[in-house]
Structures are given as structure tokens and as C-alpha cells.
Amino acid sequence: MDKKEFVLKDLDATHKWAHEFAKTLHAPVTVALHGDLGMGKSEIAREIIKTLRGENTVVPSPTFTLVQNYDGISHFDLYRICDVSELEEIGLKYAIDNDITLIEWPDIAKDILPKNTIHVYITQNGLGRKLVIQ
Ligand SMILES: Nc1ncnc2c1ncn2[C@@H]1O[C@H](COP(=O)(O)OP(=O)(O)OP(=O)(O)O)[C@@H](O)[C@H]1O
Ligand SMILES: [Mg+2]
Q1: For a substitution probing ligand 1, which of 8, 11, 37 has the most ligand atoms within 8 Å of its CB?
Q2: Within 6 Å (CB) of ligand 1, which residues are found?
Q3: Residue among 16, 33, 10 at smallest CA distance from 102
Q4: CATH topology of domain 4-133
Q5: Residue 2, pLDDT score
Q6: Is the full-model pTM beyond 0.85?
Q7: Separation of 116 CA from ligand 2 center, angstroms?
Q8: Domain range annotation of the chain
């Protein structure tokens, strides 16, 4: 896929971007959300899930549960995973093969991410964010 860049001036702009991006996703597809603490990985995942599963969907952060499932959408946060052997136990491979799979802190899974993974790199840009999609 071509590299694309988006400058998002605030959280509202980020939500609008994620809303449009969500409509382009069809399972099975994996989206790797890269970015430091607080860059907005969860905000993007939450907006994608609400767009595809309804605005009233409650989307808690998977920081402690590691994964949350929404009828064919799987939202992972791998921050607390220490060893790649844990990835199978939490169902990552199954999700990648079947679901719209959204992954925060994806680095530890890099060897099992499919070639066509959509990588989203989020960095600070003034008060907003810059996204690079690859
Ligand atoms: N594009 C943005 N512009 C300004 N503020 C933002 C933007 N995206 C997120 N934020 C702010 O940053 C806060 C943290 O975002 P979020 O929890 O999504 O980060 P995260 O990348 O998932 O962090 P973590 O690594 O802890 O999981 C949000 O509550 C929001 O207020
Ligand atoms: Mg998060």
C-alpha cells in the first residue's frame, strides 16, 4: 500500500479520520496502531469500533484484559505481553485470520502480523497528531 500522511489538529479531527477509515475495513484485516503513551491509539480503535458496531458500543481499554471482542472485531493491547508465546493464548492468530483486528503496541507481534497489515504510526504534531499510514 502507498504511504499516506494525515495532519489531525485535535481529537475531533482524529475521530473524523478514524470514522472514515473504519468504513474501508473488511475482515480479515489487521491494523497495527503504533505510537507512544497517550498518542491516541485507543481513541482511534474506539472510533473504529463505534463506527462499525454502533455509537452506543462501550469500548473499554484492553490494557488489562489484553483483548476485547466485538462480534468479529478484536481489539488488542500488547503492552503487557512479555513473550511471544503468550500471543497464541490470547487468540491473536485466530483473530488475524478471521476478524478486523486492531492492535495497540504491536511490536512484539511483528513476526506474526500478515504482510498486508495496515500500519498506522501516530506522532505528536503541535497540539494535534500526525498519522503515517503504510
Ligand atoms: N489527535 C489527538 N489530539 C489531541 N489529543 C488527543 C488526540 N488523540 C488522543 N488525544 C488525547 O490523548 C488521550 C490518550 O489517548 P489514548 O488513550 O487513545 O492513547 P493511547 O495511545 O491508547 O495510550 P496508551 O499507550 O496508554 O494505550 C485521550 O484521552 C485524548 O484526550
Ligand atoms: Mg491505549
Answers
A1: 11
A2: 8, 10-11, 14, 35, 37-43, 104, 128-129
A3: 33
A4: Rossmann fold (3.40.50)
A5: 79
A6: yes
A7: 23
A8: 4-133
